[in-house]
Each structure stands twice: as C-alpha cells, then as structure tokens.
Amino acid sequence: MKNKLLTLAAGLTLLAVVGKFYAQPVMAQVRAALVQDVDQPARAPFQVTVTVNPVANFNYTQVAIPAGKRLVIDYVSISGAAFSNSGAIQPIVILNSTLGGGPNSLYYLAPPANASLPTQYYMAQPTTIYADTLYVGPAFAGFTPTFDVMSVVISGHLITP
Length: 161
What we know:
Jelly Rolls; 2 domains; four-stranded antiparallel β-sheet
C-alpha cells in the first residue's frame, strides 16, 4: 500500500512539474487572443510637417487624411522663431480636428521660449488626438508679431474607423 501511495505521489509530482512548463505558453496565447488590440494590424504610420506663419498668412492649413481613414496623433513637435517690435509675444499653434462629423475640437499648443535665445521656441510632446479632419493654424498672445514662423511636425498612425 505504501509503495502504491509513493508511486501515485511521484506521478502527480511529475505531472505538476511537466504541466508547469507546458501550460504557460498555451495560457499566454489564450490571454493574448482575448486582449488583442483589434486595430493593431490595420495601423499605417503617418507623419506630416506643416509651416504656420501668421504674419504672411493667418489661415488654417488642412492636413490631408486619406478617405476612409482616421488619424491618431501620437506626437507633436513645434520649433520656430517669433518676435515683436512692440513687446512680448507668445506664439501658439492650434490643431483643429473633427471626429465622426461632430463639432470641432481645438487644441492650443504654446511652445516656451528658449532661455538663452528668447525669440526661439521649441516644444515636443506625446499626445493622443483622433481626427477625421485636421487643420493646423497660427495664433499668438501678447503683441502683434513682426516675425513668427513655426514648423509643426505631427506623427501618428492611420486606422480604419
């Protein structure tokens, strides 16, 4: 009887050890299938650079988004220079987006001045903005700019809504 119990205990221990090593990959695959990011295979990288200059042209610039696609903005970088003969100025870049035919959403981005070169402005930041249409426009706070040119780099990916 004692030999049968030891044999049974050894068999169960062996089964537990084997199960420990072989069950993990199977369970990981099951978990991955249950939490799959459904838009992952459909993502297409997207990047565009838009120049804004309120002194020369105070209009919005449309960003071309392919028909039937939605832009997901992951990162925005702004660099440029601005000054006013009258006093302090804060250049601003506006991202104007719509989603699903809804109302406009405005995102105001104000790059800080460079400490050593106060007329130069830089900003880079991650973000998440969804857009079926997107326009980039200039704005400013403070005195009217004598010179203001900003380069806006928008990085993200396209998905099918």
